Amino acid sequence: MTTRLILHVGSHKTGTTAIQQALFQHRDAFAAKGILYDTGHRFFRGPKTAQHGVAHALARNGPADRALLQKYRAALIDHARDAELIVISAEPFFRHFDAKSTAPDRVGKRAAYLTRVADYFADFDVEVSIYLRRPDTFAVSHYKENLVRTRTALSFADYIAERADEFCYAARLAPFERCFTKVTVRSYEDTVRRGLVRGFFEDHRLPLSADFTEQRTRGGISAVAALWLAAVKSGGDISPGDLKQRWDFLLSNEARQLMADPPGTDLWRDADQRRVFIDAALAGFDRADFWHLPTEAVRQPDWNDADQAAAERVYRQWLQRNMARLRSRQVLGAAPYRADSTLPPLRFWLMQRYFELRGLILRR
């Protein structure tokens, strides 16, 4: 009998990090019940908690990648003799494409990549598992994430226009449905109502430990914060280090108070713009009953040059007060969304004292 394999591919901004951390925490309990969650970290770079390295290697497909992929697949096949279920989770499967493909467009290159993924897991009974957010909230979250992580400096309106194909759900699902026999699509919002991790485990009939506590997923930035950061980036290229510091600032309590969104505001210009976007995103998508679509009015926050300058002054003052802390986090490789409390306490404290003393010496 062919071993079942769940290929959880996201999509993005659907709590995949929290789900993957929970899957990783349960890996020993899973093994005792014939469920394998092997992230392949001994073979691939990337997070220990998920199979991002596998997804990336299948996209690059170079000689070294193919050698490591062969070893990982051999390990999966070996474990499959005792496992009833294998779980693979990595959202890059949802976005990757084959850059070397001769296909004329990105749709064809996506299909080429997913064909390779399907061939790679052909020894298993694969079910692709996809979670989708309501299109308008997904677009806003997607924009904010790219704003803090990448060099993009586009306004929200320009961003969703330039990347419209990424938000067309029917087109995004089509290559999966062509390349895999079983594709299950679920509502992210429905899962969150049941508890993100609990709902995911229920959906896939995975055993959840009785003492498991749902952790808060990492927070995003406000619409006002997005307007501030987009304006900063549009004024000139900023370094990756500066971008990380600004992201760290935007997650601070000080910035949250300064840049809280006024009631009824979002990045949508108005309800008409949002409605047109949702209609386009759901064209040809036969699961629109996943969501109660929004009807409330919405407008962008007021944000002018004076507000921009005031926020920049607050940021500069915060940066001066937090420089030793930020330098320490940089040395430890901590992402901006990772809380100080999760860092090695003694090492973090010693580094802060070092950078504080160094700063005092340099100022003399």
Folded structure, characterized:
The chain has 364 residues and is an alpha/beta fold. The chain has two domains: 4-134 and 165-203, Rossmann fold (3-Layer(aba) Sandwich); 223-260 and 304-363, no CATH class. It is 54% helix and 7% strand. It has 17 helices and five strands. The chain has helices at 16-25, 27-32, 52-60, 63-79, 92-95, 106-120, 135-149, 156-162, 169-179, 188-193, 196-203, 223-234, 240-250, 253-258, 271-281, 305-332, 345-363; strands at 4-8, 35-36, 85-89, 125-132, 182-187. A five-stranded parallel β-sheet has the order 2-3-1-4-5. Helix 3 crosses helix 4 (63-79) and helix 16 crosses helix 17 (345-363).
Tally of domains: 2
The shape, in one word, is: globular
Q: Which sequence of SSEs, written as H and E, runs from N to C?
A: EHHEHHEHHEHHHEHHHHHHHH
> Which structural class do you get from the secondary structure elements?
alpha/beta
Task: Determine Rg (CA atoms, Å).
Answer: 22 Å
List the helices and strands and how they pair.
Elements: E1 4-8, H1 16-25, H2 27-32, E2 35-36, H3 52-60, H4 63-79, E3 85-89, H5 92-95, H6 106-120, E4 125-132, H7 135-149, H8 156-162, H9 169-179, E5 182-187, H10 188-193, H11 196-203, H12 223-234, H13 240-250, H14 253-258, H15 271-281, H16 305-332, H17 345-363
Parallel strand pairs: 1-3, 1-4, 2-3, 4-5
Helix pairs in contact: 3-4, 6-9, 16-17
